[in-house]
Here is the input.
Amino acid sequence: MLQLSLSWLGLGPVAASPWHLLLLSGASWVLARILAWIYFFYDNCCRLRCFPQPPKPNWFWGHLAMAKWQRLTTKGSARLDMFEHISLMTLDSLQKCIFSFDSNCQESPSEYIAAILELSSLIVKRHRQLFLYMDFLYYLTPDGRRFRKACDVVHNFTDAVIRERRCTLNSQGVDEFVKAKAKSKTLDFIDVLLLAKDEHGKELPDEDIRAEADTFMFGGHDTTASGLSWVLYNLARHPEYQERCRQEVQELLKDRESEEIEWDDLAQLPFLTMCIKESLRLHPPVTMISRSCTQDVVLPDGRVIPKGNVCVISIFGVHHNPSVWPDPEVYNPFRFDPETPQKRSPLAFIPFSAGPRNCIGQTFAMSEMKVALALTLLRFRVLPDHKEPRRQPELILRAEGGLWLRVEPLSTDAQ
Ligand code: HEM
Here is the structure.
């Protein structure tokens, strides 16, 4: 599966760039993580400060599809597939953070975003067809040809941004380039990678920058869309928790002129955070991970997993283990109440995995989910659909046939 996921990026393990995060090891990997860490944890999260708010037509409003949802719900409630709408939002906002590009894909079709969505679904389809694992066979099929075409679209887009940006960097020089970026607050992930040097002081080649950018697009969109979709589902099924979250957001913003969520506000939404965490427990977007044992692992009962074995770790299984989580199927945000800390192992809750190869985008993802959820609940009520969704674990945890909810605007009085 990993190999197929990598070929999404046009990279087989052999051809893969040594910078490719999912494959990296050693010094380059550490440097790559530090770079990404610096960027994502500080600079990029601070971008949330800049999410402009309604009533002016603005950036985040568009990314979040709020205007679209308002249009769709003018006649009362609308039945919407959360995955469809929220994926566009996460893709759009990542494209902005990585490339400083406004796709406006909520309103008009974007070739790039359509290509990423197509690649994700083709990988899942190919994964089910063992005989198509071999590239040369796969590329002879219609799906294989569609896959190559979509890869070209994605790569051409990224290459064009890198080419253009490198050209500006070369003509302006590093100091001028950084000054201009700082002034316009438009330093993005591509810029950071262009300015980066490896441990020998060498710049990264363009193909490595492309692989990094595409990896973040790939790793960041579906996962966050799944996390947000399922938390909306859980809050739709538990109106009392939904209302409590809404009141928390309303209270936070009550004396403000505009409904603007600041970076520091994200720590002031404890109940909403508890609801997101409980949803990530019950519906972890990434349901399993694998690890190769670099040494013999002795289990508590004395059995040994020998060095060299690959182990599949079920995040879903850990999160549903009744001896750690009593009544595991019950959605209960109070499990994560910071006021009543539980005596649980930190490894009992691992939606972002654990250890040195855990999710590099987790702070970014949590921030995006909090902002998106807070702004959504401020304007809309979500209600369950008549049909219960069935979980469908693919690359990420989806729902069979989509995750449908009813969305209705809150009355002006209620706001
Ligand atoms: C709710 C949202 C997210 C969830 C649940 C999630 C989950 C995970 C998990 C479980 C892993 C570990 C995979 C493994 O161990 O094999 C991982 C790795 C990774 N994630 Fe996320 N992720 C999320 C959002 C993001 C975002 C927003 C980004 C980037 C913008 C991102 C980028 C990555 C990258 C690059 C890796 C590989 C890190 C490495 O190997 O060193 N993720 N993610």
In short: DSSP finds 15 helices and nine strands in the chain. Residues 1-6, 8-28, 37-62 have pLDDT under 50 and may be disordered.
